Amino acid sequence: xxxxxxxxxxxxxxxxxxxxxxxxxxxxxxxxxxxxxxxxxxxxxxxxxxxxxxxxxxxxxxxxxxxxxxxxxxxxxxxxxxxxxxxxxxxxxxxxxxxxxxxxxxxxxxxxxxxxxxxxxxxxxxxxxxxxxxxxxxxxxxxxxxxxxxxxxxxxxxxxxxxxxxxxxxxxxxxxxxxxxxxxxxxxxxxxxxxxxxxxxxxx
Length: 204
Ligand SMILES: [Zn+2]
Fold this sequence. Notes:
Bound molecules: zinc ion
Number of strands: 4
Protein name: HNH endonuclease
Distance between the termini: 36 Å
């Protein structure tokens, strides 16, 4: 996505105005286009946990600054530093942190080098080369499993606490913690799913 001359002018004006540059009202339209770009470019998933925005959960999608804008103002409007993420990965987990940067001086010489990031960069790395994300749909239940293939994959898995999503999806699939209703799938089906998953994983 290319910025128009008007976009660039609006960015300059917002920067000159100072304060909360990102939320300057001159940039509302530009931000809407950035979000649309990342929602239609590739699949509509969180750039860190890969959960699907369309059918997994209804929530507000955030424009994510991979290098946080509070610490790396120069990359606030760089498309390579932007993507879309879910609130879970964006706020409580990542927030304003930059501990995933390998060398905080080196990163400023060229932020687009994937080796400068411990985790899978949403734009400069290929997610599936580092981490596989399995989704199995059984009736109304969804089961999620991640398999790390590289150090970056493992780092991403730990950093974004993806094991928690696996547990959550398995619990949901087994009807936990829904207290009143019976499980979406039976114990028998759960056992069959686990068996299929193990066979699948053993073949990778
Ligand atoms: Zn996420």
